[in-house]
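Name: Ribosomal RNA large subunit methyltransferase G
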Amino acid sequence: MPILQTPFARLDLLRQPPQRDDPLQAFDAADEYLLNHLHGLGLAASSRVLLLNDAFGALACSLAPHARVVSSGDSHLGYLALQDNLRRNGLAGDAVAFVPASEVAEGPFDWVLIRVPKTLALLEEQLIRLHGRLAPDARVIAAAMVKHLPRAAGDLLERYVGPVQASLAVKKARLLTAAPAERPAPVSPYPTRYRLDAPPVELVNHANLFCREGLDIGTRAFLPHLPGGLGAARVADLGCGNGVLGIACALANPEAQLTLVDESYMAVQSARENWRAALGERPAEIRAADGLIGQAAESLDLVLCNPPFHQQQVVGDFLAWRMFQQARAALVAGGQLWIVGNRHLGYHAKLKRLFRGVEQVAATPKFVILKAIK
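Structure predicted for Ribosomal RNA large subunit methyltransferase G:
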């Protein structure tokens, strides 16, 4: 197991969700570079440090014994990884305060250390929120692997924080240091909104949502084929995003009982706002979670899912396979999992390993809609 060794700590770290023989590690050279650089600058024990997008807690666990640390990110899996890795390394669970990205971390902060996220809209929103929350002489440093560092990241730091200086690359990682300067109070372009004709709803999309400007083509292919006549069925929208599948199902099935789940806090925030706008006070459970891990066994009749095929920059079907397993455990005998997926991903064969029956409901040149029966 790789160990993160820096002047701040020697740490044994794991990723989330856990995966047997995981070839990937919970930190990278950008974490090491940032921590080594920070140590060289000097970190006072009284410093308030804000960490943004610290995926699995490598920065937080390193710095928790040395400063007052607040970590903020949009991944519930990231929060679970932080908690596990604090315990794993003998640190208290409350050694680091965690603020979901759907909320604002209250300053002032002496240091802001940023792992540049895949979605630059999230970075933009986070930088906008720093306005008025930096202490005098605060320092803002962003880190990324060079291959994941677009020029636009530096442009955003320049626009919202101040002049930016790029470091030399070390082990294919780079740092961007922004010197805070006077900037007018920014107006956030988020959330974005778009309208659908069927169902006739307007959808709010906070900064880290996939396809913020319009409905993604997989969901567009899925919507006309959602099941009706469900009565009081217990239905989950797994990986709900802005909630459109669950909302459409609820509108078509007035007695159905809906649960909407996503690991993104901004997705859950969007889904809650969209549910309220479309369905008023109709009850629903909308929560941030590791999929259906917390769902009681055999407590659902139907699961709807447009599964992701990446975690941050890592592409693969590991998360989808895990969601299929979770759905099977949560469904009653005879319950159904309905999914949409790219044809080339071969979900039909994978579902047959878990479910007694798999049927193709519909198809487009790019997507298939499948129904798996427990």
